[in-house]
Each structure stands twice: as structure tokens, then as C-alpha cells.
Design a protein that fits this description.
Length: about 350
């Protein structure tokens, strides 16, 4: 399947995702430049165009249906191909861009508060990261809460990774990438792999990872008035309970900030300075360093949750994806293909 580039449908999809987890309204402030880039204010306005009405579990099916309808209209970067696969019993998609190296693979775990999102909803960001990293991307359609609470998503991520290795890919040629809840899931998956004594991936990129589902870190309160996208009460709080189910949210595989993080591969963490999840990233980086794990933390001034989805037309978003690509290429250096 070949698709040509467009961003209109993506902005609509992003708005639906943010509606689900809580976002606010704003007046039009920015403009589109003659070079096709969007200003900070315009992108922010697009990201928070819906109301901050409290989320209820009853709304989840309707919101998911709207997300998938918009995703079906979304266009991908030119030359992108999609191949649906059964990854060890887990639905998944290969996102193949022309620049991809056959032996550099990214396992992408999408965000959406463990209740929303899919490989389809994140095809465009996966393609952009794949372009930047010159890698093929496996998008994992893990099971969602509340129908499938913890540990369903973790089990699916583990199965998909095991399938990848069974298919002949070497762990040192694989990296995990995850945004928001997907970032937390990527971290939990590596923690569980380490517990099992299984091979770990070469590296991981976590964008605004949700790694503390208790909501007790300071930024959850201190950034509440400046975060235009996320909120705890009536938002992430509802999703945390839905994902945890009958398990304590302090469980280190639900809130991997509390896990033993020793022995993990190099990790790049990116986060916007205006997020209520800012301290999830800061505290994660601090703990990783305490376990002697190589970690880079990049806090993007003025940015909000999901800013990277506005690439390439928002310069800060394009720069974030470029930094992800650079880190991933260095973590998995070029070598002659074996596939």
C-alpha cells in the first residue's frame, strides 16, 4: 500500500485522542507560514481544540470508533508500505519506509492511556520515526483496557518481541520506541525481559512516558494549569484505574518508575516542559542514572503532550523526531543486510 503525504486527517485524529484524555479549548492565535510550517501557537491550538470534559468509561467505545474512522483517512509519507502480521498471536503491522534498513528494527508501542490508540492510529508517527532512524517499524496492537486490564498489554508486548526474535532478528538490531502509555509499556516490557533473563533490545526511546500511574509526582499538580492537553482528575486517573484493574497501581510493572531498572540498555527520554508527565521523565532519568543505565533526558521548552505528532510542519516536532532518529541510528549502527 502506497500513500502520499498529508497532515489534515492527522490533526483531527490527534484531537480525538486528546479529547479522550482531557484537553482544553483555545482561541486561534497562530498562522501557517509560506513554507508550509505551522507556528507554535497554531499547533497548540489544534492540539487543544476540544473541551476538558471529564472522561467516563462509557465514552471509550465511541471515541475509539471515531479514532479509527479518522485514521482510515490519514495519508502517510510517500512510499510508505503497510503489512499486517500476526506477531505470535498479537496483531501488528510492519511500517516500511523506503529508507529503512532491513536489519534495523523498531518495536513501536503506541500511546493512548492503555485504553485508546492502535497501530493504525499511529502509522504516521511510526513512518516518520522510521524515516529518521532508517529502520523498519513493527507497530504492536496490544489489547486495551478496560476490557483487557493489566497484564494484557504487557503480555502482548512480550509476545510480539519474542515473535520478532524467533523470526531471526537479533536483539542488538532492535530498539523499543513508545509514547505516553506506550513509553511506560516499553519500560515495563524491558523490566520483565530482564527478570526472565531474556535478551534485551539494543536501546529504547521513550517520549513523554507514563511511568507513575499513582499521579503523586509534583508536576501532576504543578503543571496542571499550564498543560493544555492532559489532566489527572477525570482523565489519567480514570485510565490508570481502568488499566490496573484489580492490581495495585504501585505494582512495578504498572508503574515501572518503581521497578529495578538496573541492566537496561541505553535510553533516550523526551518530554515537553508543559506536561503533567514532566516529572515522570525527570524522575525516570534520575533513577536510571542511579542504576548506572545510560540515559539522555531532553526537556523541550514550551512543548505539550504529543507535540512530536505535528512533525514535520512544527519545527520543534521535526527536531524531536530527528533527535530520535539520530539516537537510534547510533544505537544500531549500519552493517550489511542479512535479510
Amino acid at each position: 500500500m502506497i500513500r502520499r503525504p498529508s497532515t489534515r486527517a492527522h490533526h483531527a485524529l490527534l484531537a480525538l485522542v486528546f479529547t479522550a484524555i482531557g484537553c482544553g479549548a483555545a482561541s486561534e492565535k497562530g498562522s501557517v507560514s509560506t513554507k508550509g510550517r505551522i507556528t507554535y501557537e497554531r499547533a497548540l491550538d489544534r492540539a487543544r481544540q476540544d473541551s476538558k470534559a471529564p472522561l467516563t468509561l462509557a465514552q471509550i467505545p465511541r471515541i475509539r470508533a471515531r479514532q479509527e474512522a479518522v485514521a482510515a483517512l490519514e495519508r502517510l509519507p510517500w512510499g510508505t508500505e503497510i503489512e499486517q502480521v500476526d506477531a505470535g498471536g498479537v496483531r501488528a503491522e510492519w511500517i516500511l519506509v523506503p529508507a529503512a534498513k532491513a536489519n534495523r528494527v523498531l518495536v513501536y508501542l503506541h500511546g493512548g492511556g492503555y485504553a485508546f490508540g492502535s497501530a493504525a492510529s499511529h502509522r504516521r508517527i511510526m513512518a516518520l520515526v522510521g524515516q529518521a532512524a532508517q529502520a523498519r517499524v513493527l507497530g504492536v496492537d496490544y489489547r486495551l483496557a478496560p476490557e483487557h486490564p493489566f497484564p494484557a498489554a504487557l503480555e502482548d508486548a512480550l509476545l510480539a518481541y519474542a515473535w520478532l526474535l524467533d523470526s531471526g532478528f537479533e536483539p542488538k538490531r532492535v530498539a523499543f520506541v513508545g509514547d505516553s502509555a506506550g513509553g511506560g509499556l516499553a519500560l515495563s516490557t524491558m523490566v520483565k525481559l530482564k527478570e526472565r533473563g531474556a535478551p534485551l533490545p539494543a536501546a529504547a526511546v521513550l517520549v513523554s512516558p507514563w511511568v507513575d500511574l499513582t499521579g503523586t509526582l509534583p508536576a501532576a499538580t504543578h503543571n496542571a494549569d499550564v498543560d493544555p492537553i492532559l489532566r489527572w482528575e477525570g482523565g489519567l486517573e480514570v485510565l490508570a484505574r481502568a488499566y490496573a484493574g484489580r492490581t495495585d497501581v504501585k505494582n512495578p510493572l504498572i508503574s515501572p518508575l518503581r521497578a529495578d531498572l538496573g541492566g537496561l540498555p541505553p535510553i533516550l527520554v523526551l518530554v515537553g516542559a508543559r506536561e503533567i508527565l514532566l516529572d515522570d521523565s525527570k524522575e525516570l532519568a534520575r533513577r536510571l542514572r542511579g542504576f548506572d543505565v545510560e540515559v539522555q533526558l531532553r526537556v523541550w521548552p514550551g512543548m505539550w503532550h504529543g507535540w512530536q505528532f505535528h512533525a514535520p510542519r512544527l519545527p520543534e516536532a521535526a527536531a524531536a523526531i530527528a533527535s530520535m532518529g539520530s539516537f537510534l541510528r547510533k544505537s544500531i549502527p549500519d552493517r550489511p543486510a542479512t535479510f
